[in-house]
Amino acid sequence: MANDKTQVRFGILGCAEIARKLCRAINLSPNSTLHAISSRSIEKAKQFAIKNTLPESVKVYGSYEDVLDDPFVDAVYVPLPTSLHLKWAMLAAEKKKHVLLEKPTALNVEELDRILDACRSNGVQFMDGSMWYHHPRTEKMKEFVSDTNLFGRVKTIYSSSSYLPPPQFFENNIRTKADLDSFGALGDAGWYCIGAILWAMNYKLPTTVKALPATTFNSTGVIMSTTVAFHWEQEEATATFYCSFLSHETMDVSVLGSKGSFHVEDWIIPYEESSASFNLTSAARFAELHIGWNMKEQVVQVHNELPQEAFMVREFSRLVKGIKDCEIRPDTMWGDISRKSQVVLDAVKSSVDNGFKMVYI
């Protein structure tokens, strides 16, 4: 194992369930190590350490401030409720800690701009916790979509992210609380759909965004389910997505081009950690008399040596190490991607809040 001088030392602000996954990813990544965890109470932090069999070398703190004040912490992972992101991400940046921030990144783009400005002015790396960007399969899908001979131009995209949690989720989970994560299913599941659609469009913002009236809220007005339509006027392209806490698990993306198309069913969380696939077709035609096709979908299998969350941590740590060694400056691409997703998220919420009117971006 590499020594501490070659590894990025992580602190985690909060003991949310997703933090368990990141603890594992930090340990699996070859260029990072978990240095500290924290909660609002020392007892909760200790229980988290025991539950996840963390080594005694990991510092256990009873406040988030203690992690930020630890001089050995290089970077922090922030899985706190969205309403707390602005405060703690900005404090982390001001303490010169690099910021890996859970999605959705902020309550609105103005808050995210303040976070990104703090990261830029303090010379620290920013990245949000959308893990699928870092899977090798994503690169292979992009190669196909970018091949104008095989795929052509994007014409339409469909995405869905949904799941049906147990009844206690709707009573206790922060994603159903207006004062903690006011976007609800839109911010949790919809963030992925928005990211996938923008990714397929090379991050070109849509001309218009419109949420459909078939939107479901809980008793406090938090979105439990919604469907959204996008239009790119110049590109003559469209997209729709569905996100929900009220439907069976889906993690679909379909991208249709003028010459080809591809589909993936498990893009957020692959069916398997060590391998993932997607289906593509190019130049497909109906057979004579329309009794079949001239080809079947091609299955592209991509094998990977690390889980996608470990790839994310490895890439984030590579950037942090380069900045620490004065070899590179922070990569602003990741902040730009998050910001565009936040702009679209805000537009969808505006459409919902204003009677499902069309919003121009």
TrEMBL record:
Domain GFO/IDH/MocA-like oxidoreductase: 141-262
Domain Gfo/Idh/MocA-like oxidoreductase N-terminal, first and last residues per copy: 8-127
A Pfam family matched in the record: GFO_IDH_MocA
SUPFAM superfamilies (alphabetical): Glyceraldehyde-3-phosphate dehydrogenase-like, C-terminal domain, NAD(P)-binding Rossmann-fold domains
GO molecular function: nucleotide binding
Gene3D superfamilies, sorted: Dihydrodipicolinate Reductase, domain 2 (3.30.360.10), NAD(P)-binding Rossmann-like Domain (3.40.50.720)
Stored PANTHER family: GFO_IDH_MOCA-LIKE OXIDOREDUCTASE N-TERMINAL DOMAIN-CONTAINING PROTEIN, PTHR46368
Family: Belongs to the Gfo/Idh/MocA family.
Protein name: Gfo/Idh/MocA-like oxidoreductase N-terminal domain-containing protein
UniProt organism field: Tagetes erecta
